[in-house]
Amino acid sequence: MATSVDALSQGFIHMRIVLGMVVGLGLTHLLRQLARIIEHPGRKRVYWVHLVWAGSMFLYLLSFWWWEYRLSLVTQWTFNLYLFVTLYALLLYLLCTLVLPENIDEYADWRDYFYQRRAWFFGLLALAYVIDLADTRIKGATYFAALAPEMLARDLAFDAFSLIALATRNATYHAVFALAGLAYQLLFIVRQFEVL
Questions:
Q1: What is the DSSP letter of 77?
Q2: Which residues cross the membrane (predicted)?
């Protein structure tokens, strides 16, 4: 059965709507929790490294949404592909809820929360970067080949650094990783996001 261009377009539009809802929830969650921190600065002491990771997740969501436009290159949508991409988006939402949770009453402050929950956050972040490679491959061999050298190095580096981060409480390591990761994300965006 031949698939019309119109049908392909509809499949992509459907996927974009689902992804838009999940990304929108993630962005809303991050902004709502950041607003709570601003509204009640004395409630819990803020930890700047933690806020850098919140900013990093904000950028990850935006870049995910930007790059998922390339799913328009997919010529055949299957339920497994739909499930994979949806679960990737949900993983990013989960990371947003972990980096800025609704409530940290059982923790002394944001620093305490960050270090006690770091294994979950960095474990899932490492998983997200593994999934990112598969997600990039889904968009086609030509697309993957164009980005593969840098993306492979980036994703493997983020995986390795995340695995170290989940194992160590070293504040200097976490500060350097957070700042270097955010700086790399910003440079990648400037270099790669000129046109959709």
A1: -
A2: 12-34, 46-67, 79-100, 120-138, 171-190
